[in-house]
Amino acid sequence: MSFAPLQNDTFLRACRRQATDYTPLWLMRQAGRYLPEYKATRTQAGSFMGLATNVDYATEVTLQPLERFPLDAAILFSDILTIPDAMGLGLSFEAGEGPRFAKVVRDEAAVAELAVPDMDKLSYVFNAVTSIRRALNGRVPLIGFSGSPWTLACYMVEGQGSSDYRLVKSLMYARPDLMHRILSVNADSVAAYLNAQIDAGAQAVMIFDSWGGVLADGCFQEFSLAYTHRVLAQLKRTGVDGTDVPRIVFTKGGGIWLPEMKDLDCEVLGLDWTAHLGKARAIVGGDVGGPGKALQGNIDPNVLFAPPEQVAAQARAVLDSFGAPHTDRSTTGPTHIFNLGHGISQFTPPEHVAALVETVHSHSRALRQR
Amino acid sequence: MSFAPLQNDTFLRACRRQATDYTPLWLMRQAGRYLPEYKATRTQAGSFMGLATNVDYATEVTLQPLERFPLDAAILFSDILTIPDAMGLGLSFEAGEGPRFAKVVRDEAAVAELAVPDMDKLSYVFNAVTSIRRALNGRVPLIGFSGSPWTLACYMVEGQGSSDYRLVKSLMYARPDLMHRILSVNADSVAAYLNAQIDAGAQAVMIFDSWGGVLADGCFQEFSLAYTHRVLAQLKRTGVDGTDVPRIVFTKGGGIWLPEMKDLDCEVLGLDWTAHLGKARAIVGGDVGGPGKALQGNIDPNVLFAPPEQVAAQARAVLDSFGAPHTDRSTTGPTHIFNLGHGISQFTPPEHVAALVETVHSHSRALRQR
Question: Which position has the higher pLDDT, B163 or B104?
Answer without folding.
Answer: B104
